[in-house]
Fold:
Amino acid sequence: MSRMKNIRVLLWALVGTAALTATGLYVYNANRPAVTANFGAGDYTLEAGNGDKFTYASLSGNPSMLFFGFTHCPDVCPTTLAEMTSWYEVLGPEAKDLKAYFVTVDPERDTPQVVADYVSWAEPVVGLSGSLEEIDKFAKAWGAFYEKSPLDNGDYTMNHTASVYLINANGEFEGTIAYEEGGATAIGKLKKLLAKG
Structure:
């Protein structure tokens, strides 16, 4: 009989522990900040070809697209820039407040003016560059990957994140458009972003 009593006490203890754990998890999840609360925030300064400075605050006020690339990119970057301009064309007047930025991950070769010239055909995309230190801070703030990759001819290329980041008017991350994602899906995501203002 006392063995059954001990088992019963043990079972109730386990139930009590499970209840306390569940309550703790609920309180923790209800009060913890969203994963994206500070995503992208940081003390960094980039520069456009016209000399304008770009900081985290520059992403507030308008919904934005953000893309990491480099001017010697053979395929991903020109393809993505072409897609971005086509999205503007499809959206038409709906996209009047939508900003777009191309940030180089190769500041060794890509000065602000070089990047500005590179994106000039893809208006209204703004090209941005800066020191390696500032580019590194910016990429880390947004969780973007990039690395230099040597080529057999002694030159190098850059491996980098190929998605377009979507940022709302408060400077908050809203998601991505993957490289060569279907046009209808991309437009749907942009319409959703623009609807948030």
Q: What stands out?
A: The helical segments are 2-31, 76-91, 112-119, 132-141, 183-195. Strands lie at 46-48, 53-54, 64-69, 99-104, 126-129, 146-150, 156-160, 164-167, 173-177.
